[in-house]
Design brief:
The protein is an alpha+beta fold. The chain contains 7 helices and 4 strands. Strand 1 and strand 2 form a beta hairpin. Helix 1 packs across helix 5 and helix 3 crosses helix 4. The radius of gyration is 21 Å and the shape is globular.
Length: 188
């Protein structure tokens, strides 16, 4: 009887450790698929409809707060509905397996876009940018449970997180369901 109880406790401990480590494993798999530009691998680890809906809601809330007092409160729903007309197609075009792979492949894609918008003024700045590019790849910095079925994973450079991914459990699988850019927030 004692051996059975010890065996059950050991089995329970292994199951608990496995369950607790699965989100970290899913985040690592997603980053690896993005690094390899494996869009099928990315697609299996992301709940695209839910991710787009969560991003849409966040963008609409930011729009509503930025408009503030410019419109009477009665027009708040109208602003939200109108913003959905242009936010939805944009998210559908950007939040794809290839788009997620580009975002997660590090800060390189976003930094290249930033350089195209704001080119460096001199050749010395180009050299500094080139040497900085070598350390621009984002790395998984930390992860933590927000609830039993939700985990936050921070990515960035050195000790500076830039992107937070939210994974939610679907059965035994963990899928990316939300993301947020962390500008000047630091780790939380």
């Amino acid at each position: 009887m004692k051996k059975l109880l010890v065996g059950l406790l050991l089995l329970l401990a292994i199951a608990t450790v496995t369950y607790m480590a699965m989100p970290r494993y899913a985040a690592g798999q997603l980053v690896e698929a993005a690094r390899l530009q494996d869009t099928q691998g990315v697609e299996q680890l992301v709940d695209f409809p839910r991710l787009r809906e969560n991003l849409k809601q966040r963008l609409q809330a930011q729009l509503r707060s930025s408009v503030g007092d410019a419109f009477p409160p009665e027009f708040g729903d109208l602003v939200t509905a109108g913003s959905g007309l242009f936010i939805t197609p944009v998210l559908r075009g950007l939040i794809t397996p290839a788009g997620i792979a580009d975002i997660l492949s590090g800060g390189d894609s976003l930094h290249q876009f930033e350089r195209e918008l704001y080119p460096p003024p001199s050749a010395n700045d180009d050299a500094a940018e080139a040497s900085a590019d070598e350390t621009r790849h984002w790395q998984l910095q930390r992860w933590r449970y927000l609830a039993l079925d939700r985990v936050a994973v921070d990515f960035g450079q050195a000790e500076d997180p830039h992107l937070r991914l939210f994974f939610s459990r679907r059965g035994w699988h963990w899928l990316l369901t939300d993301m947020a850019l962390l500008e000047g927030e630091g780790p939380q």
